[in-house]
Specification:
Helix content is about 50%, strand content about 25%. The protein contains six helices and six strands.
Length: about 130
């Protein structure tokens, strides 16, 4: 059963947590810093290069970034990822550098010293404005 739970908690395409697994991890935390990243032009890249190639690129970006001691998981759609950690601004700068090296880019939205419910509401408000 534990193997199944672990398998269902892991997004194989990007090498990060699924949304339900991410929710469980951050609900354990009182307050935290996080950043919502939204990959740019992912639909176009998928059409140009194919889903498998783009997923491999994104997987490799997160694989290099995992040593940064952050919790990383899918958020809304396939191109949105939430990253939770300490000194998040510096870590996202590093992630941007990794992404640029692989010809990828993303927009980011920071949430500093927030709790889980506040994050969900603020991200929802942000998405509704788009």
């Amino acid at each position: 059963m534990q193997k199944l739970i672990k398998k269902l908690s892991y997004d194989k395409a990007f090498g990060i947590l699924t949304r339900p697994a991410l929710d469980i991890e951050i609900e354990k935390m009182k307050r935290f810093d996080c950043c919502l990243i939204d990959f740019n032009n992912l639909k176009s890249l998928n059409q140009l290069l194919g889903y498998n190639k783009v997923n491999k690129i994104i997987f490799s970006i997160f694989e290099e970034f995992k040593s940064s001691n952050c919790i990383i998981g899918r958020w809304f759609s396939g191109d949105e990822v939430l990253i939770v950690g300490i000194n998040i601004v510096e870590k996202i700068s590093y992630l941007k550098w990794i992404a640029r090296r692989k010809s990828m880019s993303f927009k980011e939205l920071y949430f500093i010293n927030k709790d889980f419910k506040k994050i969900e509401k603020e991200i929802g408000d942000y998405k509704n404005r788009e």
